[in-house]
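Sample pair:
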Amino acid sequence: MTDISPTGSTPAEAEAFLAAHPEIEAFDLVLHDANGIGRGKIIRRHELLSFYKTGRHLPISILGLDICGEDVHETGLIWDQGDGDLRAWPLPGTLVPLHGTAPPRGEVLMSMYMLDGRPMNSDPRHALRAQVDALAAEGLHASAAFELEFFLLANDRGPDGKVQPARDVLDGRASHRTEVYSVDHLHGMLPLFSDIYAGAEKAGITAETMISEYAPGQYELTLHYRTDVMQAADDLMRLKRIVRAQARAHGVTACFMAKPNEDYAGSGMHFHVSLMDGAGRNRFMEDQPGTWSPAILHALGGLKATMGEAMLVFAPHANSWRRFASQSYAPVSPSWGVNNRSVALRIPAGDIAARRIEHRPAGVDANAYLVAATVLAGIRHGLAHRIDPGPETTGNGYEDTGGGAIPVDWRSAIEAAKASAFLKDALGEDMHRTFTAIKSSEYARVMRRVSEVDFDLYLHTV
């Protein structure tokens, strides 16, 4: 058993933070599981330093929980291991004050390790770290940013039982219109948005443009591009918690379901990624206008070739699959194109030096660490095998079915993921086993539940 932090964290960081923030009384310790749910503990101020010195024991089963927080025995992380303790350690640079808490609290992200300091590989963050390290061994690193789409909803359902957009927190005004790109519509939520930006600033996150999106109550928040893809994923996971907490403080619900409203587009989590070499040059950048770089073409080829096997990562829940419908800004085939929002893999228009791929399949309900790990693995696969992505899709990408098959439903995606050698490599054997077992358990939970739609369709008709 080691008392040397395998993350590189030091007690000096905690000591400096405590000295700078005498007002903070407690700290949220947050570890993200396979579903992206933040799990951990709240500790008192006097306990922080010992956490930095010796880590914190947590049961191994915390990484084998389903969406409801119940054990999934098929992960092998429960009684097969005796549900013993492992050690969580703080991640350097993630100790921050939380905005608007009373009494004041702080937060620190953590990751799980074996007692001897080896990574516990059912921790999603380690899956991304493994892909980052594999790229580094090839002399490359990824720069990246996520986009966060979400709904702000009323806390109560409407008379029809469906969710309804939140009233403006400024003056209670209601709108059931789409209001896409309406600046005036944003004004009604400015007090909430101001608190989100304040929370992001305290967390060291550069949150940027706020947009009224393509459904009533839907918004998008963009994040500053990071040179470190690990930090980009941390930003996204932490920002979701900030948005949820600040929305709750303002009396509304922040919703990160992929498709909360059947009549409108769902929420994506678009992932922008560039590939940099040791000299800091963007490998996706073309040498001359009109000719794509081989690196970006091979990366697109790898992402297309592996998308079918990886869709469970991008669409992990039953609700995720309701998002994929033609003309809904969610891709329905592994296509690529330039400045085209109907494809799965988009090359945005703009500065050649900032050339990147916008990966569009993932819903906002996906785990950012696993999405990033899988995308990086797909890029590596394409580069290694020099995969040709085929012709660019122009026009309506929803009509392009020549790019290869992706699963048509959740069950098919689970079976494809279980059988996928690529996904096992992308996530690592332990994370692959844990993730697919949890998804299989969730599928069984959903399928045995008798829903309202069953009664609506069948109660008086069959």
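The first strand starts at residue 26 and ends at 32.
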